[in-house]
Amino acid sequence: MSDFKFIFQSLKSRWLNSSLSIFLTAFGVSIALLVSQFSDHIQNRLNQDGKNIDIVVGAKGSPLQLILSSVYHIDLPTGNISYESAEKYIKHPQVKTAIPLALGDNWKGFRIVGTNSDYINHYNAKLSKGKIWDKEFEIVAGSSVPININHEFFGSHGILEGGKTHGNKKYRVTGILEKTGTVLDRLLLTSLNSVLEIHGLDDIDHHHEKHSDEEKNHNDHHYEEHSDKEKNHNDHHHEEHSDKEKNHNEFDHPNITALIITTKSPIANINLPNLINRETQLQAANPSLEITRLTSMLGLGSKSFSILSTILILIAVLTIFSGLASNLENRMGDLVILRAIGYSKSRIFKIISLEGMTIVICGIVLGIFIGILTFNILTQVITPLNISQVYFMYNTNFISIIFFVILAGLVAAIFPAYHASKISVANQLSKNI
Amino acid sequence: MLFKITNLEYKIDNKRILNKQNFTLEKSNHLLILGPSGCGKTTLINLMSGLLKPTSGIIMFENKDYSKLSEKNIDKIRAENFGFIFQKLHLIGHLSLVDNIILAQKNSNFKNVDNLIKKLGLSEKKNEIARNLSFGEAQRVAIARGVANNPKVIFADEPTSALDDTNTENVIRLIFSQAEKTNSTLIVCTHDDRIKKMFTNVMEISE
């Protein structure tokens, strides 16, 4: 009789205990895999999406909220800032690149982001179809956005699906991006002016023209005044200037949501936010700092799940151990017969170890199946995960978990197996006889 | 010569379990070891089959000295040469009748096993699990397991102690007939005087 047949028959004869051990191992493995997969995914996304972003400038509020909304597009923005105030930092000598972002609308839950082509270049994204926008209300879609080229749609107000539709202007899709594995995959990108115009704000170019006209008028007038009333020059200049400022409608000024900055030097990553936070009404946040804070908070949650899955695996291992050990007492008579008819100690050891390992392997296989199934269900049900196109990764963490469970199972099986192999056949036979 | 036993003795904690034994056994010369309970009969067959290590003395099986063999080699001798029939049968309850019989065989010859089952009148119960068999059926299975490997020696420990006269005779006859078919030498230990008349080679052990 082959050892495998003997093992199978033995496990079958105590199927309730074997099934319990298999299911406990499976649940432990599946929870451990789920925790690891989601943690890895979050970490990967955080790294990918925040790559080469040193500072984010936006409205005052929670710095984490600013980072989440502007870099990861998973929270509401803290508010808007005037383009004029941000422009100073676009041209700042310590700034290498500064990408403006204007948020506020969505299409079927996919955020519409007003920006420039630098944003696409930042993530090294390439077009898979069509072309980038030439004019206002042309839009480029990320690879995960379910939309085709030349499709036209109205944007809806708000970040989440179901906001009021902007019925006055239609967007037209001119390009589709290749998959980047970044936040870009789930965004709709258009020119900054499109977003500003749809919200009734001056566009950037118009604002510049208006601004330079005002400057020009102001200067001409100033020179006239200057020649006529040379003596009162200074006082009059100030009055005129403040009047002009008042007449200008502040609500028409172009606003943006955030400015994504890459600095020229690491020291600027510290100095520039300090300067902005101290001297302006703007807020500058450091993504790496905020994300470290966020992951330490998330870490508490994932740590709890890790502990839970470790406990489950340990319970499973103890069940395997107790199943084999307690059963051993009842099976001593059987094992003695095997020894008596010529089974060697090492063969008995192998049989009992393999019984334990069969349970562990079945538990692992079932656990992986349950883990993948649950992972796929969760990624379908939870919208952000669905949009992010999360997929199950067979990475080093996956291998580590499987290795740990096999090792724990081996330890659980080895002790009863060793005990079984050391039985005194004659003593045991005389007990039974 | 099948067995040569010289000055064989077994003690536990200085308590003598088996007095010094000296004897030889030739092939096909079936041996009955007779003696009262506790005289060391079972210990003697455990020593002869290599299940126990003697305190002193020499056991030679086919000119191989057990004391010079590793435990693994003794296991191998046991697997290849010996069959066992126990008083309490010791069938593995969750295995079928066939599986119990072929337990000792790595490469089972199913044709031979089928013939054996047929001869013992167990064909209909072939796939029945052992715990569902009657005592009589289980006893025949235990005998079948003892002879299935065509062993050179069949050790039977108190095979008839719980049986009535008729069944005692039937079981001994069955064991004899199977031993003859497999050309095995029987070594039976018992305190049951009823079977003494069936053996020509009887060794009596006193306490």
Features:
A: alpha+beta; B: 207 residues; Rossmann fold; four-stranded antiparallel sheet; 9 strands; 25% strand
Structural notes for this entry:
The complex is a heterodimer of chains A (433) and B (207). With 433 residues, chain A is an alpha+beta fold. Chain A folds into two domains: 3-47 and 301-432, no CATH class; 55-203 and 254-285, no CATH class. Chain A is 60% helix and 16% strand. Chain A contains 14 helices and twelve strands. Chain A has helices at residues 3-13, 15-49, 63-70, 83-90, 117-122, 192-198, 204-228, 233-247, 266-279, 287-340, 345-381, 383-387, 396-421, 425-432; strands at residues 55-59, 81-82, 95-107, 110-115, 127-130, 138-141, 152-157, 165-177, 187-191, 255-256, 258-263, 282-285. In chain A, the strands form two sheets. Chain A has a six-stranded mixed β-barrel. A five-stranded parallel sheet of chain B has the order 6-7-8-3-9, sandwiched between helices. Chain B is globular and about 50 Å long. Chain B is an alpha/beta fold and 207 residues long. Chain B contains six helices and nine strands.
Question: What's the gist of this structure?
Answer:
The complex is a heterodimer of chains A (433) and B (207). Chain A is an alpha+beta fold.
Could you outline the blueprint of secondary structure elements for this entry?
The complex is a heterodimer of chains A (433) and B (207).
Chain A: H1 3-13, H2 15-49, E1 55-59, H3 63-70, E2 81-82, H4 83-90, E3 95-107, E4 110-115, H5 117-122, E5 127-130, E6 138-141, E7 152-157, E8 165-177, E9 187-191, H6 192-198, H7 204-228, H8 233-247, E10 255-256, E11 258-263, H9 266-279, E12 282-285, H10 287-340, H11 345-381, H12 383-387, H13 396-421, H14 425-432
Parallel strand pairs in A: 4-9, 6-8
Antiparallel strand pairs in A: 1-11, 1-12, 2-10, 3-4, 3-7, 3-11, 5-8, 6-9, 7-8
Helix pairs in contact in A: 1-11, 2-10, 2-11, 2-13, 7-8, 10-11, 10-13, 10-14, 11-13
Chain B: E1 3-12, E2 15-25, E3 31-34, H1 41-48, E4 56-61, E5 64-65, H2 71-81, E6 82-85, H3 97-102, H4 110-119, H5 135-147, E7 153-157, H6 165-181, E8 185-190, E9 201-204
Parallel strand pairs in B: 3-8, 3-9, 6-7, 7-8
Antiparallel strand pairs in B: 1-2, 1-4, 4-5
Helix pairs in contact in B: 5-6
